[in-house]
Amino acid sequence: MIEGAVLWLLGVLAVPTVGLTSVFLISFISATLLPLGSEPAVFAVIKANQSLYWSVILTATGGNTLGGAVDYWLGFGANKALKPALPGRWFRRVERYGAKTMLLSWLPGVGDPLCTLAGWVRLPFWPCLMYMAIGKFARYITATTLLLFVPDGWWQQIGSWL
Predict the structure, then answer these.
(1) Does the pLDDT of residue 110 top 60, yes or no?
(2) 37, 53, 67, 120: least buried by Cβ within 10 Å?
């Protein structure tokens, strides 16, 4: 049943079929529900149509930032619903450096919990959202630009190994 649901989801999000919509959804979901990486979808759409470069980057940034905002509000709500835990090292660091810590929200494995932690310690929402967007935008620009500079033959060689 789960396998069928995953195959259905992948079919719905098929990059050649829906392009920017799939980039937005994958970017949003990768920042909230599932441990996905949105970079392969972003790169695939840009590689298929390089004239969409900025549209794809901005769409992915928007989706991923919106996902980070959901994480923020989950942390904010969890703090209200649960008895606040004793502040640990990460709590103190996020409170000390404030909204600027959201520049690190792009980091794999750390970024999404960092957004949740920002909500938990009740950092101001709008500055957090701005720094999230800057960090995620920089990640997409850097990753996509680096991937575009790699020759196609190299990707084909890796594909043949898999």
Answers:
(1) yes
(2) 37
